[in-house]
Amino acid sequence: MAAFIQPPIRDRYGRNIKHRTFRKYAPFGDYQNVTLFKNAYKARNLLNYTVAAFYKRPVRRLTRRQCKTADDFERMLREREGAYGIKLNAITSLTSFQGDVEYLFHQLDGYFFFNALQNHISIKSGLANVGDDPLGIDIKFEEEAYAPTEGDGEHFQINVNIGANGHLYELTDIVGRLLHEMVHAYLQIFVCNCVKCSKGIIDTVKVDHDMHSHIFSLLHHLIVADLKEWGHYYQHDSLKELLADDCLGLRIRKRSNFQPEEGSKKMGQAKVNFRSFPYIYLSQNGEEVIVDQFRFIDRQTHLENYLRKETERREKVRLQEQALRENSLREQMKRKVKSNLDISDSEDEVKGEGTESDADSTRRW
């Protein structure tokens, strides 16, 4: 039976009081079953934990669910993308296309977000489903995520345009728009809303001058990069070009020599707490996402190797204990059977002696 997980403690306004820590993650056993609580985690910790479950993982280090999800996602994309990018006639129903968006949502949620969004998000898709940008930054929105009820930070609706003016967009364009809003919703639902975290919300969840926060950019671009890798793995050209105009470069830094951005290089002779440096960060020019291989990828690999060995050791011990119990039960059954046989033999001997005595008595008479 699964262990009970204590939910976060909230104040009277529903804000988180203490940051939650994450269970150890590994793509096997109970370690792969992740439960996330609303507004309970530091933004960067949520970023690290989420990325660790998919980034630069060979197939052997993915969960079975992730492998099946990726296969189903790519197969559906290949089968259905020919129906998109065309002009619709007046009698064409949008039902099948709206079903495609729902399906894509669940596949992306299962692979990248631990299936954590499905109970919090409703999807609405259609032609010109989203209107003009109220802030005037873009000419119009093609997608949006918002809480339908004011003050409700748990349930969100994602609206996505699948076409306009009687013309369907390309399916990969719709995937990009859907994914964009899923990342927004994921951060808004699960990043901590305590007083301290709320002060830095511009850098984590909400928008800044370019309408996207630092943490959003890192998570979004790493997911897009992973989807592009699917394109190469499956030899799927449209996936290779997913959001080609909206993706930063990627670099794996093999040494742990983090160089702080935003003018923080001038540290003088002050002692630096190396452990406080992020594992994933933007380059100084803001054009690359840099992942520290030694402190992030290799450390996660070592953790999973340890957990696998521990799991195998515990399983071996469990099997040994089970075998001992079964042997003990067999011995008890043998002793019980033997005892019953001994009792039966004793009774037969007593009966035999009584019969023999009666016979002698009869002969004497």
Structure write-up:
The chain is an alpha/beta fold and 365 residues long. Helix content is 46%, strand content 10%. The protein has eight helices and seven strands, in the order H-H-H-E-E-E-E-H-H-H-H-E-E-E-H. The strands form two sheets. Strands 1, 2, 3 and 4 form a four-stranded mixed beta sheet that branches. A three-stranded mixed beta sheet has the order 5-7-6. Helix 3 crosses helix 4.
Number of helices: 8
- Could you tell me the number of beta strands? 7
Helix content: 40-55%
Overall mean pLDDT stands at 80
Please report the distance between the alpha carbons of the first and last residues.
75 Å
Secondary-structure content class:
alpha/beta
Q: Enumerate the spans where pLDDT stays under 50 for 5 or more consecutive residues.
A: 133-139, 207-211, 260-274, 361-365
Work out the radius of gyration. 31 Å
Share in β-strands: 5-15%
Molecular shape = elongated
Q: Describe the main β-sheet briefly.
A: 4 strands, mixed
Helix/strand order: HHHEEEEHHHHEEEH
Search tags:
365 residues; 3-stranded mixed sheet; single chain
List the helices and strands and how they pair.
Layout: H1 43-52, H2 64-80, H3 95-112, E1 121-127, E2 143-146, E3 156-164, E4 167-168, H4 171-190, H5 195-199, H6 214-234, H7 237-240, E5 249-253, E6 280-282, E7 288-292, H8 293-364
Parallel strand pairs: 1-3, 5-7
Antiparallel strand pairs: 2-3, 3-4, 6-7
Helix pairs in contact: 1-6, 2-3, 3-4, 4-6
